[in-house]
Amino acid sequence: MSNSTRCAACRYLRRRCTEDCVLAPYFPSTHPDRFACVHRIFGASNVCRMLQLVPVEQRGQAADSIAYEAYWRMRDPVYGCVGSSRGCSRRYRRPRGSSPRPGPWWP
Ligand SMILES: [Zn+2]
């Protein structure tokens, strides 16, 4: 891959993007903010390590999950993506006594 077609990760990190770049398929140059957010929360080396632990056919889903978590952690540093689900549960709260809650940690 030439420098003009570096992935968003390599462009952000200002390095050459090689043919075997682990991040290139999941962080295309068309979405630079996605990697910037992921890098800020998890760090590039940790993201590489996490993706390499996952089978290749599931890496796309793992990258989406990592990006989702990073996005929400940036928006809500305290609760992260749990904060988004807490907001949903408040909006769609079950009527009292309808069924038990899944656990004491649930809002
Ligand atoms: Zn790359």
UniProtKB/TrEMBL annotation:
Residues in LOB domain copies: 5-106
Region annotation (Disordered) ranges: 83-107
Name of a matching Pfam family: LOB
InterPro entries in the record: LOB (IPR004883)
Family to which the UniProt record says this protein belongs: Belongs to the LOB domain-containing protein family.
PANTHER family to which the protein is assigned, alphabetical: LOB DOMAIN-CONTAINING PROTEIN 26, LOB DOMAIN-CONTAINING PROTEIN 4-RELATED
Protein name according to UniProt: LOB domain-containing protein
